[in-house]
Design brief:
Helices cover about 60% and strands about 0% of the residues. By secondary structure, it is mainly alpha-helical. The protein has a two-stranded antiparallel sheet with strand order 1-2.
């Protein structure tokens, strides 16, 4: 199945608004299972079935109560002898994950979508054992008998010292657990050592952390963590290295000299906002606010610092299902966030007030339904932007 752009009226110069909702076609055989009839289910932030995009209210079909059926379909899908990932977000596992994944199957889905876990059930266990063994060979070589044994170069010691300096800055309770910090330290050190083009850059710890959260399956307090046996923790650590490392590889230009990947995303973010909501863009510009002042962290850390962790993991379900979710679709999610606070921002008249608001946005009460709405709005914005840019 392929994505269809929906119906958008011809846009005259200077106009950027939707005329009718953009929908994606869903095969009849999957519609009941996915809980869809025409387009993506998009609960709005106030519980209605209408979503405001760039100042205009756009109708989207409300979800039907078939979530359990969809979860069962997902479990069936990942239990097949050969899991169909799908070439795009409209096919196979990617289509299911785009709509969000419940917590029980999420670790398996993330392992599959990062390419770490084989889609073939026959090869899966053998490949996982090989990769986990390979990771701990790296641990022995570079960490235990390397930097800890005093056999590292000066550059390697500096890299290790920077990681040790960064980890205590986090406030989540899990970071107070020495065993967890050591495991995250090893993952970051070994990945950075084996990828000298970027090395270690502050913020990589934020990117890797959600994989620990998902693979720990909710056991995030010190008491819960300390109750997990060592073998299971070793498995989780190795899986985080390969899956989190894959994501770091996808966005490695965020961490190379001058961070061209981040620069490009912030520039695109600014251009998207200029296109879809010129009034808000002009208002922020007149206050002297550049998108780099707040957009840098939104792009560099992929909203890990801005969103509650359960909401972020739901968002990353969609990113993993997208061909370029973390580098392209993320920009439109950030634009959706900005539009969510449009009225409040338009009423702010001071540079410092706006900057403080955007650097520490009010997201603590966001829910899974809220992020479902953001994802749908981001899809609409992406379709709109691509049709008129």
């Amino acid at each position: 199945m392929r994505a269809t752009p929906g119906t958008i009226n011809a846009v005259r110069k200077g106009e950027t608004q939707f005329s009718r909702p953009v929908t994606r076609q869903v095969p009849a055989m999957d519609a009941a299972v996915l809980g869809l009839s025409v387009g993506y289910p998009s609960p709005s932030l106030n519980g209605s079935s209408r979503v405001d995009v760039a100042g205009e209210t756009t109708s989207l079909q409300p979800p039907t109560p078939t979530r359990t059926a969809r979860e069962e379909r997902l479990l069936e899908l990942i239990s097949l002898p050969a899991v169909p990932l799908g070439a795009t977000r409209d096919e196979g596992l990617r289509c299911m994950a785009w709509l969000g994944v419940a917590e029980p199957p999420r670790p398996t889905v993330w392992r599959l979508l990062t390419g770490y876990m084989s889609v073939s059930a026959d090869r899966r266990q053998r490949d996982l054992q090989r990769k986990r063994r390979e990771y701990f060979e790296y641990v022995a070589k570079y960490y235990t008998h390397g930097v800890l044994a005093g056999r590292a170069t000066e550059e390697e010691r500096k890299l290790h010292d920077q990681i040790l300096l960064d980890l205590p800055r986090h406030s989540m309770s899990l970071y107070r657990c020495p065993d967890f910090r050591t495991r995250l330290e090893r993952v970051l050190y070994i990945w950075s050592l084996r990828h000298p083009a970027s090395g270690y850059v502050q913020g990589m710890d934020d990117i890797v952390f959600p994989f620990f959260v998902v693979f720990l399956e909710g056991r995030l307090s010190e008491v819960q963590y300390n109750a997990i046996d060592g073998e299971s923790l070793n498995t989780i650590e190795a899986d985080v290295y390969w899956c989190g490392g894959t994501l770091l590889g996808w966005i490695q230009d965020h961490y190379t000299f001058a961070q061209p990947g981040v620069q490009l995303m912030v520039h695109r973010f600014q251009h998207v906002m200029q296109t879809v909501d010129a009034d808000l863009y002009v208002h922020l510009s007149n206050l002297g606010l550049t998108f780099m002042l707040f957009g840098y962290q939104w792009m560099h850390c992929l909203l890990v610092r801005e969103l509650p962790m359960n909401v972020l993991c739901r968002l990353w379900d969609t990113y993993l299902a997208e061909a370029h979710g973390f580098s392209e679709f993320h920009v439109f999610v950030c634009a959706s966030l900005l539009l969510l606070w449009r009225d409040r921002l338009m009423n702010m008249k001071e540079f410092d007030t706006v900057l403080k608001f955007l650097q520490v946005p009010p997201t603590e009460s966001m829910t899974i339904k809220d992020v479902d709405c953001l994802v749908s709005k981001a899809y609409l914005l992406q379709t709109q932007y691509q049709s008129i840019k």
